[in-house]
Amino acid sequence: MTERKTRAFSYIDDVAIPIAKSVNIPAAFNQVFNIGADKPYTVNELVNVVGAEFGVKPQVTHLSARNEVLHAYSDHSKAHGVFGAPTGIDLKEGISRMAAWAKRVGARQSQEFGNIEITEKLPDGWGIKMQPAL
Do 92 and 11 meet the contact criterion of CB atoms below 8 Å apart? Predict the structure, then answer.
């Protein structure tokens, strides 16, 4: 049976706003905070939400499990106490806003970065193009 990994996918405002505010809030000086989404979602939920927003049926290929944490999320109560409540934007709304932006600006050609990517010991299925060593 496939393990269901969960992640707390964050809406940008839930991260960027506290970071921007931190320079003006003395209680934030020299502190460490967990900042991000409060609700974890499965990776499959993310796939389905993105597919729905772009009108495609995802074709998922499950690769062999990687040696990584099964559930990744953290307690944000300290950050909420200093910066206030998060936006309340859930996964579906956040992806909807991102998709609207992507549709508005259109596709762009990504730039290839030569000789900076780590290509050793990557999980199967990542399909990284191997570049010759200099």
Answer: no
Closest CA to 43 of 67, 24, 29, 61: 61
- Can you give the pTM of this predicted structure? 0.76
Residue 68 structure tokens: 């990584």
Half-sphere exposure of 107 (CA within 13 A, CB side): 2
pLDDT along the chain (134 residues), means of 10: 79 93 96 93 94 94 83 92 92 96 91 74 67 48
Residues 72 and 40 sit within 8 Å (Cβ to Cβ): yes
Token pair of 27 as six digits: 């209680």
User: 106 is written with which tokens?
Assistant: 């259109």
